[in-house]
Design a protein that fits this description.
Elements lengths: L2 E5 L4 H13 L5 E8 L13 H11 L3 H23 L5 E7 L2 H12 L3 E6 L4 H7 L2 H8 L4 E5 L3 H15 L1
Parallel strand pairs: 1-2, 1-4, 2-3, 4-5
Helix pairs in contact: 4-6
Length: 171
Amino acid sequence: MKKVLIAVAETEGSKAVLSVFQNMVRPPESVVLVHVQQLEGKSMMIDMLSDSELDTLREAIAGTEYKEALDRKSEKILNFYRKELENGGLVSVKTVVRAGVTSEEILKIAQEEGVDLIVTGYNGKSFMQRMVTGSISKDIEKSAPVPVLVAKNPTAEEKFAWTSAAAVGVK
């Protein structure tokens, strides 16, 4: 495997990506870290905009304090993941920031970069939340031209179960 795309955000599910990547994936030659900015908060309206409307929105916020805040947030998120990956021994880490529909942008970058695998997090939305806002990891999984690895953050019960199992094994 030569190149892996890792989609990151500031969610617990996204942090699970690090553990899964470091423990289950043979180190690739390079990693493309991707963060897609949410242009208008957590609204699902962005999914309903056409490409030309998204371009207009991007142009409208360019140079504003709002866009600068998004850029600072993206830089902070990407720097955290870059540091973690580099501390794990990876040398070639590229970062990419985009604004738009998250799943669509991740898929575009995957194609542009010619990646062999996409790694993304799962944030554990309830059934109703997924019905209203959708699931980025499911959208990527359905449309990706390469394999997709979805890292799931363990629940409190799962963490407890592993801790209990480890304690029993120590005795």
